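Long-time lurker. I teach an intro course on protein structure, and each term I like to show students one example going from raw sequence to a predicted 3D structure in token notation. This year I'd like something fresh instead of my usual example. Would anyone be willing to generate the tokens for the chain below so I can use it in lecture? Attribution to the forum is fine with me.
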Amino acid sequence: MQMIVHDPSDGVYATTPDYAHAMEVREPGRLLFVSGTMGLDAAGQPGSSLDAQLALIWSNLRAILASAGMSVDNIVRLTSYLRDASFVEANQNARVEALGGRAVPTTAIVVQTLREDWLVEIEIIAAA
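-- Reply from a regular --
Happy to contribute to a lecture. Here you go:
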């Protein structure tokens, strides 16, 4: 499998270093579509802060990916659902750290979550 980032410079606005306009995946053997994952611990309780929930989300995503024989290196698309627009920077920083600075196509959307104490939800697509 080959992953190729596409960030054209003509006719489209520039990306920032933390995301890419597009990722081409050539000859994937498997695709994994992961439901929105929240910052809940193993007992289903949300982390007590935004940072705690982001840490739990990435821990949960790593576990889900590992169950499919994958890692964060296999993520080819990511969507974040934020309860508040002020969460953008913390979410971005957690994503950049979790992906080791690797840029993938990403979208962040401000939404009303199902519960007030669920601050962030992230869904991913991975390829191997």
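Some talking points for your students: The CA atoms of residues 28 and 89 lie 32 Å apart. The radius of gyration is 15 Å.
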